[in-house]
């Protein structure tokens, strides 16, 4: 028939999902086949991903999805598994929040100064970039044994198909890719003693990534042949591909555990000013650049909820909406919030440290977090426009945070721009659309976006004024 089905595996920091997208010439429907928790595990050597549990969840999901025309996988970025000479996995992949990278960047910069590194790779400083992880792992027995490095979605694809590759959008988060040439940053790698031979050949979104192996077909009940298609395997690349924009004058915020806020550009911005402002140039679909800033995101709230135990989130958000606005704000871009644990206390400490009232109740803490996120969104959207010389009229909010109406409204207020929120499952939709496109069903990126505008429910939030208060809160945080 004219309608095709695609399975999108979308792995997030706290859960994995297998979604089925049905795509026709003028239709796009997404349904959840299976959702499973992703629980990182702390063992004596550090914080690890339960990658076998994730793979089992993917197989369960494919069984629940039923027969599909293709499968695509996206996940969070930067993390990887190592394979030995027999192709067997060496240990459990290290979680990007593992503290092994503390103090590593300074060592890297002693060899390749931070300014040179930015000019060559365009990546904002984050302690967990693969480059720093590999440097932290330098003298481990595991790395010495390793013959192959596969990023998370590429590792799962390898287990499904037996074929190895390195998908480009996710590779661009390693800090080992030159965003200008869209090829490896050979000079940086060689100066830092990183063996690029560990990486499998690059592949691009839309490239074939093999067929499900016989054993996988047997376990999932699917019928040969089921191709796996490379998608924008970095979840943020898939999410940006599914931003329902109608022209180029838009900013986006991909919300979830993280908030990734910025612009889609034709070319990277590699200026010293951009580096100082901590903007990243990751690669998107069709040669686009995702010029954005990583902001801590709803992680701040997730960790507080974990600390508070049983909480009714709906009631909490309602109370937070009535709490006094902009009483205290924290810097939601601060890497001090990266590690898990003690989040309410750490937020209180940050408020105290900046001479602001300490939020006491869960509702007050929640309000502080949402105000802080909206403020960080404002700063990122403003800075990106200035640094890239690219003005916008609208801010698109996609991902899990679209469910949080208060966050969307505060973001519109803070930015002084309309917010269009949706779709919630942007990463899965971007994943599905790239597969559909590879099979000739939809056209280019603007065509994909038109299909989204015509089929997905979107909500609009108008700014309610009061931008002066947001500017003042920003100044308070900057200590000016
Ligand atoms: C979001 C995300 C971000 C990346 C972070 C860590 O899920 O992929 O883009 O910076 O996770 O990998």
Automatic annotation (TrEMBL):
UniProt entry tagged with the keyword ATP-binding: yes
GO biological process assignments: glycerol metabolic process; rhamnose catabolic process
Domain Carbohydrate kinase FGGY C-terminal: 251-438
GO molecular function, one term: rhamnulokinase activity
Sequence ranges assigned to domain Carbohydrate kinase FGGY N-terminal in this UniProt record: 67-240
GO cellular component, as recorded: cytosol
Origin: domain of life: Bacteria
Record keyword ATP-binding present: yes
Keyword vocabulary terms for this entry: ATP-binding, Disulfide bond, Kinase, Nucleotide-binding, Rhamnose metabolism, Transferase
Similarity-based family: Belongs to the FGGY kinase family.
Protein's UniProt name: Rhamnulokinase
Natural source organism: Streptomyces cahuitamycinicus
């Amino acid at each position: 028939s004219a309608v095709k089905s695609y399975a999108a595996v979308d792995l997030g920091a706290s859960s994995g999902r297998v979604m089925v997208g049905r795509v026709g010439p003028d239709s796009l429907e997404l349904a959840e086949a299976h959702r499973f928790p992703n629980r990182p595990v702390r063992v004596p050597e550090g914080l690890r991903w339960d990658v076998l549990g994730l793979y089992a969840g993917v197989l369960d999901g494919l069984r629940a999805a039923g027969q599909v025309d293709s499968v695509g996988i996206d996940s969070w970025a930067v993390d990887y598994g190592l394979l030995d000479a027999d192709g067997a996995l060496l240990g459990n992949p290290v979680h990007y929040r593992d503290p092994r990278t503390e103090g590593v960047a300074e060592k890297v910069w002693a060899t390749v100064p931070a300014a040179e590194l930015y000019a060559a790779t365009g990546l904002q400083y984050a302690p967990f970039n693969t480059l720093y992880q590999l440097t932290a792992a330098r003298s481990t027995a595991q790395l010495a044994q390793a013959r192959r490095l596969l990023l998370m979605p590429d590792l799962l694809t390898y287990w499904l198909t037996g074929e190895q590759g390195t998908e480009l959008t996710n590779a661009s988060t390693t800090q080992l890719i030159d965003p200008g040439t869209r090829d490896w940053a050979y000079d940086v790698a060689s100066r830092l003693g990183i063996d690029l031979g560990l990486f499998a050949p690059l592949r691009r979104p839309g490239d074939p990534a093999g067929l499900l192996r016989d054993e996988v077909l047997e376990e999932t009940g699917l019928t040969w042949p089921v191709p796996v298609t490379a998608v924008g395997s970095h979840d943020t690349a898939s999410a940006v591909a599914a931003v329902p924009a109608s022209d180029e004058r838009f900013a986006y915020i991909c919300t979830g555990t993280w908030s990734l806020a910025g612009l889609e550009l034709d070319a990277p911005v590699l200026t010293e000013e951009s580096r100082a402002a901590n903007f990243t140039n990751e690669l998107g679909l069709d040669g686009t650049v995702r010029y954005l800033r990583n902001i801590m995101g709803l992680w701040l709230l997730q960790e507080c909820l974990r600390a508070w135990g049983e909480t009714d989130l709906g009631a909490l958000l309602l109370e937070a909406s009535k709490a006094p606005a902009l009483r205290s704000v924290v810097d939601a871009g601060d890497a001090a919030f990266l590690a898990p644990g003690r989040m309410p206390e750490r937020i209180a400490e940050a408020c105290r440290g900046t001479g602001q009232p300490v939020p006491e109740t869960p509702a007050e803490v929640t309000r502080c977090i949402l105000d802080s996120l909206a403020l960080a969104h404002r700063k990122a959207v403003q800075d990106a426009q200035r640094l890239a010389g690219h003005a916008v009229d609208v801010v698109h909010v996609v991902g899990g945070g679209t469910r949080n109406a208060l966050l969307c409204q505060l973001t519109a207020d803070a930015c002084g721009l309309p917010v269009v929120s949706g779709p919630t499952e942007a990463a899965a939709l971007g994943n599905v659309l790239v597969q559909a496109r590879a099979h000739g069903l939809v056209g280019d990126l603007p065509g994909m976006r038109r299909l989204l505008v015509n089929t997905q429910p979107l909500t609009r939030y108008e700014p309610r004024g009061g931008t002066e208060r947001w500017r003042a809160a920003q100044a308070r945080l900057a200590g000016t």
